[in-house]
Amino acid sequence: VYHPDYNITFMGLEKLHPFDAGKWGKVICFLKEEHFINDGNIVGALEATEEDLLVVHTKHYLNRLKWSLVVATITEIPPLLFLPNFLVQRKVLKPLRTQTGGTIMVACLMALTLSFHHCSSDRGGGFCAYADITLAIKFLFERVEGISRATIIDLDAHQGNGHERDFMDDRRVFIMDMYNRYIYPGDGYAKRAIKRKVELDWGTEDSEYLQKVELHSEGALNEVRPDIIVYNAGTDILDGDPLGGLSISPQGIVKRDEIVFRAARRRGIPILMVTSGGYQKKTARIIADSILNLHQQGLIGAEALEGEGSSSLVTSMMCSSGPAGSTFTAV
């Protein structure tokens, strides 16, 4: 699931934030170059409607987004406060709503999309205006038979305080969060919702990091068996990231994703994978390489469907809206 509107471009203002607001298009291009996908098996994302957003967000919060100052604060792009809100809606919030709509769509396909894990029902922050993880899980609980328990494995470098606030008292959702303890957001209240908390130090490297990923992802899935895993595969753990503060190699990121998918595969649990943070231009290539590796390892694609207890990006992505036998990978 993808739409060109995912990519935010407006007079260069998007360059004032370290987040690469055009990386989704780059990932698509890389995957096309490798003949992993083509235009025939990309499903166009639909913009989330106000009715969709109200499943999680309050009316008061959505009305606040009609003020450019509020959007400038959430996205951390100060010049936005000087623009009329109709432009902010069209050039910034519409792309974010389309990305959110894509997350909702792929929730039913168990696919790959992006994430805004700092946004909760009544507040945004950290470039996150809509709570797409919360929305996806609530849509699954309400509209997909057989899904009543979810586990969030959040491996972005930052604490996922948005979904943690939203699921604070919801026993149906188990949250594992592994993050740099010293960086944004440092939300002590939200940490109360984390069932398996792994706090990392500055400069954590591959060996220690991957050991902890395997230990705690296995532990989380052994502790509670969910019907769906929402996996936040942020790439801001990459060495040199200006905001993440960790020192993980590109190969380490690819291996991390493989570890999580293998843990899910052994248990036959489907995954909704979101990509979240990553503040270097090369992260798009790393995301594409990780997807290709998952395919080569037989963890996604038609090969994964043939394995016992298969669970992958595409386990539930066989969709009648495309050509016969198509599989859909959502970015």
Brief overview:
By secondary structure, the protein is of the alpha/beta class. It has helices at residues 23-33, 50-53, 59-64, 68-75, 85-107, 132-143, 161-166, 188-191, 206-223, 250-267, 283-296, 302-306; strands at 112-113, 150-154, 173-180, 196-200, 228-232, 271-274. Helix content is 39%, strand content 9%.
Helices and strands in order, then pairings?
Elements: H1 23-33, H2 50-53, H3 59-64, H4 68-75, H5 85-107, E1 112-113, H6 132-143, E2 150-154, H7 161-166, E3 173-180, H8 188-191, E4 196-200, H9 206-223, E5 228-232, H10 250-267, E6 271-274, H11 283-296, H12 302-306
Parallel strand pairs: 1-6, 2-3, 2-5, 3-4, 5-6
Summarize the structure in words.
- By secondary structure, this protein is α/β, with parallel strands linked by helices.
- The chain has helices at residues 23-33, 50-53, 59-64, 68-75, 85-107, 132-143, 161-166, 188-191, 206-223, 250-267, 283-296, 302-306, and strands at residues 112-113, 150-154, 173-180, 196-200, 228-232, 271-274.
- It has a 6-stranded parallel beta sheet, sandwiched between helices.
- Helix 10 packs parallel to helix 11.
- The longest helix has 23 residues, at 85-107.
